[in-house]
Amino acid sequence: MKEIYRILDANFNRAREALRVAEDCGRFALNDPAITAIAKYLRSDLQQILEAMPADELIASRDTPGDIGTELTSPTEPTRHTLDDVAIAACKRLTEALRTIEEYSKILAPDRVIDVERMRYDSYTLEQRLVGRLMVVRRFAEVKLYVLVSSSQCTGSLRELVRGVIAGGADVVQLREKPTNDKQLLAMAAQVRDMTDETGRLFIVNDRPDIAAIVGADGVHLGQSDLPIAEARRLLRPGAIVGRSTHSIAQVTAAANEGADYIAVGPIFETTTKDAGPAVGVELLKEAVEICPLPIVAVGGINADNIAQIKASGGKCVAVSSAVCSADNPQAATRTLATAMAAAIA
Fold this sequence. Notes:
Layout: H1 2-29, H2 33-51, H3 55-60, H4 83-108, H5 113-140, E1 145-149, H6 158-168, E2 172-175, H7 182-199, E3 202-206, H8 209-215, E4 219-222, H9 229-235, E5 241-246, H10 249-258, E6 262-265, H11 281-291, E7 296-299, H12 307-312, E8 318-320, H13 322-325, H14 330-345
Helix pairs in contact: 1-2, 1-4, 2-5, 4-5, 6-7, 6-14, 7-8
């Protein structure tokens, strides 16, 4: 029986250590309360299962100096190049350890096997959420031009507008439709989702995580008075993007701590967009870029003539709406902005 105690002791330790690595990534690297909570709950569940075991026997069976495995390692084990590598390795180690605990618990504590099995399935969810968030953060970090589209601003159809901004070089398309009924909004969102899917562009829905979830959008953008980020994520697929509008440094900090994937700062310049509020200036953008590690999106009154000011303030991504949507040729207007942005950040 001592060999079974040794196996279980080693794998309880592996699982506990892997959970700590995953939790720290969700807490400190991603500022994601859901990932942090899942990892914490799993650690608590693991401890409860361990308490059902003969803890003294497990510890007494430990023989680190005599463990032949301490001298063996794979060629890839010491190598980690990115945060993704660390997180993925921790998640794999966790599920492998739980599988071993599940199998050997059938001998030692058969009444807890179902609990370990449930933990293993919850660990797959943790892995999906954690890796999905890391992929989103990496992908959004490459975004330079983010276009907000609205049928009310179209000179033609919404389809023509979206086709034009995609062809013109937009990296992200956000559907910002106010006001309209839910049936119409859903139809428009489905249409834009199809077009962005075909072209590999990110698609964000403004304000409505429910609509974003139904059409399989890449994420949702929330204003200051919209849902808390954690609640919005409950409606979205794992790994979906959640952005937050901010108008002050206090709001930037709050959005980062709340778990936003990116933060919109503005309006930088005066804009005719309804309810945008007074211009905050490039000074706020500069401060936000300096204090916040998340992608910062400059928004409000931006055009080809003032993009250089965004770059000078450290901005790497701009969001535009009327400069494109109200143009006679949205594709040409988007291309002009994309070219100006590329030149500004080169």
